[in-house]
Amino acid sequence: MSCVLEIQGLGKSYNSVDILKDFDLKLIRGEVLSILGPSGCGKSTLLRLIAGLEQPEEGSIRVEAEHGNTGKAFMIFQDFDQLFPWRTVLDNVIYPMGIRKIYSDKERNEAALEMLDMVEYKDSISKYPHQLSGGMKQKVALARALCLNPDLLLMDEPFASLDAQTRNSMQELLLRIWKRKGLTILFVTHDIYEALAISDRILVMGNKGEGIKTRMELEGAKPRNYGSPELMKLWKEIYELL
């Protein structure tokens, strides 16, 4: 299996306080890896560094494309500010393809419609973000990311603001798309059950600068049954670490 993400000796601090220090991580193509940890431990900072939204002070980050070139990472955030309120759903999905100058105008429109169908968006493509529910907004954000064919999808608590039923349906949708597209996903969450349901591996981080407390590999098909004895045992183990 090829490595999509390789991080070595990563370091980042704010106001002379280490957030990440000597941080190492490898992510295999097609893997879903979730990161759990207390607030301020560096989970979101890590994603922002990988996405290139911030720069590390130490170490290296490499995202590898499928055929050996430098790969692309795309980040989906918890809030919905990533959608432009003055653009329609369709225009929001098309926009980053235009910025990156990929496809013709006709192909961008076709790709946007295809990805909106893939994320099971059922509402009007002429609506604006303020007219959408939280779940629909995240579907639009996911469709926009998929149009760029990212080598690595970074998700920073994307379902945290959703109600429980919508959150569960979005987790199931994400896994259907993961299976269909062969996505590689790095997923940050505070929800232990969410991590257990969707992940191949889980990293549990300590407080600021402490790094990774434990790495956990999971077995079985996803999504997993929340109520199974095996998951309940793992939930307790992770809860005690947090």
Secondary-structure blueprint of this entry?
Elements: E1 3-14, E2 17-28, E3 32-36, H1 43-51, E4 58-63, E5 73-76, H2 89-99, H3 105-118, H4 134-147, E6 152-156, H5 164-181, E7 185-188, H6 192-198, E8 201-205, E9 212-217, H7 229-241
Parallel strand pairs: 3-7, 3-8, 5-6, 6-7
Antiparallel strand pairs: 1-2, 1-4, 8-9
Describe the structure.
It is a single chain. With 242 residues, the protein is an alpha/beta fold. Helices cover 36% and strands 24% of the residues. It is built from 7 helices and 9 strands; from the N terminus they run E-E-E-H-E-E-H-H-H-E-H-E-H-E-E-H. The strands form 2 sheets. Strands 5-6-7-3-8-9 form a 6-stranded mixed sheet, sandwiched between helices. The protein has a 3-stranded antiparallel sheet with strand order 2-1-4, covered by helices on one side. It starts with a strand and ends with a helix.
User: How helix-rich are the residues, as a percent range?
Assistant: 25-40%
Strand order of the largest sheet: 5-6-7-3-8-9
Calculate Rg over CA atoms.
Answer: 18 Å
Structural class: alpha/beta
Number of helices: 7
Spans of at least 5 consecutive residues with low confidence: none
Percent of residues in beta strands? 15-25%
Number of separate strands = 9
* Main sheet characteristics: 6 strands, mixed
Shape: globular
Mean pLDDT: 91
What's the order of the H and E elements?
EEEHEEHHHEHEHEEH
What is the straight-line distance between the termini? Answer: 31 Å
